Amino acid sequence: MPILTQPLRQMSRFFSPRTLSAHYAFKGASEKFFAFSPEHQIQLVQSDVAGTLVDPYCLAPLNALHNIFARRQFELTHEQITGPMGLKKIDHIKHLLFVELSAKWQQRHGRVPNDKDAEELHDELINKLNASVASFSQLTPHADVAIDFLRRHSIPLALTTGYSRQTATLALSKLDQYVVSTTADEVVNGTRFEMIEANMQKLCLPSSEMKRVVFITDAVSDVESIRKAAKLNGALNVWTFCIGDYCTGIEGITSQKQAASMSADELCERRERAKERLLASKPHAVLKNLSELPHAIVAACQALSENKTPEGTPSLVIETPSDEQHSANDLRL
Q1: What DSSP state is assigned to residue 99?
Q2: Does one domain contain both 225 and 245?
Q3: 3-class secondary-structure state, position 257
Q4: Per-residue pLDDT for 324 more than 90?
């Protein structure tokens, strides 16, 4: 079956209950990856940090943001807090303050919120994040599969994050497999695309090679940022994949214990709603979790071999082993 055959929305498989084994992710994807000529192989993977590689459900910033506003008697919904997730943290604060809470703030304080209010909230947020983020820095489930695949195939991993460098250093305390990283405070406007460009510059990769770069994230705002930048810079773009199972958009989860206590049906339903929101931002595909990244890389290689570009390809279908193939493989292990 060819990889690029049908619209993404037809692939309900993305949120099937079965997860690919590491063995099959390696074996099936490796054979296909090496079949492509070097000019059609992906040469760099760039990733968001919280909610994608570490901190399942992006709990560190979620709880810190909730706490700093709750301390001021402002209650924000999960959707309000997580909508801007991925932005530079001062921009995240300003969105919540100037858009979501402007009317309530004015009613309570007799004036509209201002930049001084935003800076005060931001300082408090950074203090809370720096005190807690390391405790949330465990890898997301199946991230080890993706990282091992990249290492075995000599594909470097670069990181981007809405965190500041100080916070990122703490968040990445248990992750050492990446080659470079860029944080939101190290680029002019704090956008995801700027960080992607900065990492390529650090690796001495020309912008013309962006078509051979994959970016992975759990945040709608990241995809929107990249699409906006692509329009502004002459359609220069990367292959963009969202990771759904542990993303920041899964509503109502504020702790790992809470997630573990949910029934499988309830969690699946919430993941499905999060997937739809991710799909609406128009990435090239939404993956169940990082065990599917090797096959997403193969799909991008296949597209390149057909002279397709990220900006000219609305979506990719990710070919993974069928349940029958997977079951047979499990019996052989």
Answers
A1: I
A2: yes
A3: helix
A4: no
